[in-house]
Design the sequence.
């Protein structure tokens, strides 16, 4: 994939260089890797870096079934633009079996279980078949994420690599602007962090670190994908 | 050509199955329906086309049943998505129940279609004029939808889910008015049908508000004919308004009075302001339109006694 040769913002160059080297080393070791992406504005940096430095890496999108159509279109557009191998991970549990005793979908009564079925379970076979999991979490997004390291071990002993862990929201902005990269279409409507439609509230302002619109009104801040499963 | 109709055992579905089963280019009509309304009339009564039609196949399943839905799409060329939770005008149902089927059920179909890009070549999605909410003037295809009810919101969200597939297949996005007219699967909660039944039974009809509020209506036969033309590729894809005319409750009553001169009306909450919604009929679907009273008279002949 030939990406337009725009120079990286100067102050980010050393870190991008480091990511390039780290990715190169993982490839050299012959690790079977994959990335996961939620296809928000935030995610575009990692996707762009993958397209530049490891374009054959499979990128899994957790298609929970409850995304905004804008997110689904955004993922298709980026797959074409960046030439990425984007795959949908879907729950093995049929939607009709995701209703509670009164017939309502689980996000109305038991979001933790809904996330388990739609965000945690679908990745199990992907994780089992791979050795390296790359994700764009950043420490400044939440307390849970701040406790995460650049490299670590996840469910089933898989190696985890978080190349953007030390990036701030402002730096993500610089990268996006520097390369003139697209934004999630809902951003201009005031959304900060965009997840599943039922669990995303429209926040008043919202910058790229702001996850307050996710599971708004609940104590829940994470879906369980990135926490709890590690060693 | 193999056509799959979600909600195909319903009111409009039954007439559509009838229309398509008569088309020579159709090899099979797959009716995908969970029979949630407990209406089995599609399967009862005289055959829908010539003789016993082996080209009609019923799959009893929910549109949210991811696995069965995907399996049912095997070899299908055209999908007509009618499966929906509906409300009658002015009635607000359980918001989640509407969302679950109209929004997330449609989403489920959209994922299945997205995965088999290239196999299904045409999608006809039945939406509703309720996406317009209330209209100042006449809502046209250029009017921005501003739904005013939970039903209208859920239908608009369903539209958005299939609109993103527009580059994968020929998309017909059909905003349909309130359906009326005889069918063996008819619903008597549809306002014109309910009024006719009341009139026929010698009961009074109940008019809420002033009775001047308007809605878009379409006869079930004309709705089925229009959708069948889309399915058979006789129309160019795009967004459509499927309605015959806009009628006020009082106009419906007046047509009934021609058939049942003794009909009485009860007015309830006359001071209550009622929303009107007037929608522009679609010239691409225009055809001869008999007066309402004439259609109601034809409907009346289906009652087995007076
Ligand atoms: S974020 Fe909400 S809708 Fe999405 S999987 Fe979790 S509970 Fe379900």
Sequence:
């Amino acid at each position: 994939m030939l990406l337009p040769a725009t120079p990286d913002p100067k102050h980010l160059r050393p870190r991008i260089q480091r990511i390039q080297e780290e990715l190169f080393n993982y490839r050299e070791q012959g690790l079977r890797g994959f990335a996961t992406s939620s296809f928000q504005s935030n995610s575009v940096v990692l996707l762009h870096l993958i397209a530049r430095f490891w374009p054959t890496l499979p990128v899994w999108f957790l298609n929970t079934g409850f995304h905004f159509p804008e997110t689904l279109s955004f993922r298709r557009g980026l797959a074409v633009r960046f030439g990425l191998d984007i795959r949908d991970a879907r729950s093995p549990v049929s939607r009709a079996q995701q209703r509670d005793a009164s017939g309502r979908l689980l996000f109305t009564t038991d979001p933790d279980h809904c996330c388990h079925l739609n965000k945690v379970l679908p990745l199990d076979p992907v994780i089992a078949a791979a050795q390296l999991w790359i994700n764009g979490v950043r420490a400044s997004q939440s307390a849970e994420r701040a406790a995460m390291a650049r490299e670590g071990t996840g469910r089933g002993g898989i190696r985890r690599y978080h190349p953007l862990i030390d990036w701030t929201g402002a730096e993500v902005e610089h990268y996006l602007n520097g390369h003139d990269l697209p934004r999630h279409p809902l951003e201009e409507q005031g959304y900060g962090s965009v997840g599943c439609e039922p669990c995303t509230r429209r926040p008043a302002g919202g910058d790229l670190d702001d996850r307050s619109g996710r599971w708004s009104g609940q104590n829940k801040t994470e879906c369980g994908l990135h926490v709890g499963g590690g060693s | 050509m193999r056509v799959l109709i979600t909600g195909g055992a319903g009111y409009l579905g039954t007439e559509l199955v009838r229309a398509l089963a008569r088309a020579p280019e159709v090899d099979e009509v797959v009716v995908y329906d969970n029979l949630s309304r407990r209406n089995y009339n599609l399967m009862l009564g005289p055959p829908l086309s010539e003789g016993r039609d082996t080209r009609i196949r019923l799959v009893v399943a929910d549109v949210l049943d991811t696995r069965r839905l995907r399996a049912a799409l095997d070899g299908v060329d055209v999908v007509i998505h009618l499966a929906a939770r509906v409300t009658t005008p002015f009635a607000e149902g359980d918001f989640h129940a509407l969302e679950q089927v109209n929004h997330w059920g449609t989403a489920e179909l959209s994922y299945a279609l997205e995965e088999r890009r290239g196999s299904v070549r045409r999608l006809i999605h039945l939406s509703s004029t309720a996406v317009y909410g209330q209209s100042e003037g006449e809502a046209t295809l250029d009017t921005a939808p501003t739904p005013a009810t939970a039903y209208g919101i859920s239908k608009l969200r369903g539209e958005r889910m299939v609109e993103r597939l527009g580059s994968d297949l020929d998309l017909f996005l059909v905003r349909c008015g309130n359906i009326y007219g005889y069918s063996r699967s008819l619903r008597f909660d549809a306002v014109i049908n309910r009024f006719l039944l009341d009139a026929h039974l010698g009961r009074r009809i109940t008019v809420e508000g002033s009775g001047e509020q308007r809605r878009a209506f379409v006869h079930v036969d004309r709705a089925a004919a229009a959708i069948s033309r889309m399915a058979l590729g006789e129309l160019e894809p795009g967004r459509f308004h499927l309605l015959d005319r806009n009628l006020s409750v009082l106009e419906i009553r007046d047509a009934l009075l021609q058939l049942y001169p003794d009909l009485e009306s009860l007015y309830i909450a006359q001071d209550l302001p009622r929303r009107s919604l007037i929608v522009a009929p679609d010239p691409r679907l225009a055809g001869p339109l008999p007066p309402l009273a004439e259609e109601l008279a034809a409907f009346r002949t289906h009652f087995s006694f007076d």
In short: The longest strand of chain A covers residues 33-37. Residues A 64, 66, 107, 111, 114-115, 118-119, 195-196, 198-199, 223 surround iron/sulfur cluster (CB under 6 Å).
